[in-house]
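During the first year of the project, the team set up a workflow for recording each protein of interest as an amino acid sequence followed immediately by a discrete structure-token representation. This format lets reviewers and collaborators read both layers of information side by side without switching files. As required by the reporting guidelines, we include two representative entries from the current panel. The first entry is reproduced here exactly as it appears in our internal archive.
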Amino acid sequence: MKIVLISDTHNKHQFIKDAELPLGDVIIHAGDVTNKGNSIETTSFLNWFSNLPHKHKIFIAGNHDFLFEKKKQEEIAKLIPDNVIYLENSGVKIEGFQFWGSPDQPAFYQWAFNKTTTERRESFAKIPTHTDVLITHCPPFRILDETKDGDDVGCKILREKVKEVKPKLHVFGHIHEAYGEKSFNKTHFVNASLVDEYYVRKNKPIVFEL
């Protein structure tokens, strides 16, 4: 299974040319599809995402995507195109592989999906032990989470859960300047942010073979 990984497009999806986006069986967007999280921005992203040629299209919300935090689940379900999968502390099985997604993160200014330690512990406890692909917006602590000031701002609770579950792939974004990939402890980690710390789109999608 060929998986294409992107994150943190911040309304710049409309400027991504077809030739820049590799083909694959699955495309995953790990959150921050918008800047302000309003309905206009969200609809624009969903129209673009649903028209991609990838057979399976999965995304989660990020800290900029307020609409997904404010609306009820049944309202969100009406917004999502039939050929798009939205995950919010939920999962889906595709061709025998288990995918799980969560937008929750440690407090970060006044953005969306800020969760307390207790709330994050409850959210991440739901991640099934048989998860193959984990999608979160925030990184785990000290894994592709370093800011331009040299601070590690990932989630410690998430790191402990990933250590326990050992998914084959863990994709996230959020910390733009930490874009990249690394492998250890049987998991391949990918920070798939397409924009840099100045919100300039310069990073490329990352492909992972599952």
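The second entry, processed by the same pipeline in the following quarter, appears below.
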Amino acid sequence: MYRPRRSAAAEADKSDTERWLVSYADYMTLLFALFVVLYSMATMEKEQFSKLQDTISKVFIEATDQQEKGIQGQSVQPDIYPQSDFELYGSGLEQATGPTLLADNAKLELIDRTKLGSPLVAVQKEINRALRSLVESGLAKVTLQDDWLTLELNSGLLFSSGSAVSTSSASAVMTELTTILEQTNNFIRVRGYTDSVPIRTEQFPSNWELSVARAASIVRLLEQSGVAPERMAIEGYGQYAPFAENTTAQGRSQNRKVVIALSKYAYEPVAKPIAEPVQAQSATEEAAEQAVEQEQNKIRVIRLPHGGIRITTRPPEPGEEEPPIQQREQ
């Protein structure tokens, strides 16, 4: 059977009518890729997503800065793990508006800033689970912000009014908390806060002493429960770092608290040198050493060759003379 051949014009018209399929296929491919990226971003951990977001932002910001300054030939790829300017105390602390009391500052300056402790997100979940009843009743609050995980505890839960003696409920809370802190190696800061109502007692002349004493009381409880004391330090803020207004009873209640703060950086124990065993000495050797030491520390009056005297503890040099004992006693 004879089939008439299509003309070239007819073939061209057909190809023109089917070109939209190419664009449609490209559009569907891009749309599929977009949904894949959105899905992967939705399933990422919050902390990982923040790190990715910061890295991407830093790339574009540095690229823009270098273009504006006319810098060429330099890579704008940032360091994935940059060195942190983190400070263990000072400007890096939340509510750090007053003087800070810290233990062993010399050791804190030797901290390896690249050594991280246990993940704070996991510790936050454990604390929320262990202190769930306190959190739901408003007596405790767990917050994760920047480099610190803070546990705020109302002073009424831990102490009597105007006192720094911990109650039985404070011991129970610290025992429960220690089971979590023992599994970590993060630095711990215990901070004491008070309201603005003055206190003038023989034990606490001001709110400064009260806030520090309460923080020290919690540190002792944690130490007795098994937390390494080298990880902990005490901070007292008194009434000068309020969380709420002191004009109302509710605000003053919110300002009376103790905050246990965990740093994201870890404490690294310092190896102590092994003391060499001391050999026992006989009584004769000890007496001889004491006699030599007394002779070396003996005060002498030395007569100089050209006149005059010198008072010293060392023996006479050549040419010098030590007067007889009888003359010195006159």
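For the second entry, the following points were noted during internal review. Confidence is low (pLDDT under 50) at residues 68-106. The first helix runs from residue 8 to 17. Both points are flagged for discussion at the upcoming steering committee meeting.
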